[in-house]
Design a protein that fits this description.
- By secondary structure, the protein is mainly beta.
- The chain is about 5% helix and about 50% strand.
- The protein is built from 1 helix and 11 strands; from the N terminus they run βββββββββαββ.
- The chain has one helix at about 100-105, and strands at about 5, 10-15, 20-25, 35-40, 45-50, 55-60, 70-75, 80-85, 90-100, 115-120, 120-125.
- Strands 2, 4, 5, 6, 9, 10 and 11 form a 7-stranded mixed sheet that branches.
- A hairpin with a 4-residue loop joins β7 (about 70-75) and β8 (about 80-85).
- It is globular, with a radius of gyration of 14 Å.
Length: about 130
């Protein structure tokens, strides 16, 4: 059974940092690409970043480029999202999601995909 579990969310002041973790189990970690999405109240879900360890690729939405870094630890089956210089507009529930690299597509498509596997989400709140 595939399971994704996020952790690391919390309350932080603007300009601060958080590191989110997504622990994966139930599938061959390297066979899947994993992405972070976020959803703020009253707003549509937004793709934040994706990593494909097998392909060695990472993607970011424009609003987080230069501030967020996605990485993976294949030995721990875990994907991380290091978030620096946080802004109040980064406040949202953050979800990790997994699916085949073929499903995600390329840099212009991945953020609009509805992947099959999802975690339960972790709240990130950035105060001004």
């Amino acid at each position: 059974e595939v399971h994704l579990e996020e952790s690391g969310g919390g309350l932080v002041q603007a300009g601060g940092s958080l590191r989110l973790s997504c622990a994966a189990s139930g599938f061959t970690f390297n066979d899947y690409a994993i992405a972070w999405f976020r959803q703020a109240p009253g707003k549509e879900r937004e793709g934040v970043s994706l990593i494909s360890s097998r392909a060695g690729t990472t993607y970011y939405t424009d609003s987080v480029k230069g501030r967020f870094t996605i990485s993976s630890d294949n030995a721990k089956n875990t994907v991380y999202l290091q978030m620096n210089s946080l802004k109040p507009e980064d406040t949202a529930v953050y979800y990790c999601a997994a699916d085949s690299p073929m499903v995600w597509g390329g840099p212009n498509r991945w953020a609009h995909v509805s992947p099959y596997y999802w975690g339960q989400g972790t709240q990130v709140t950035v105060s001004s």
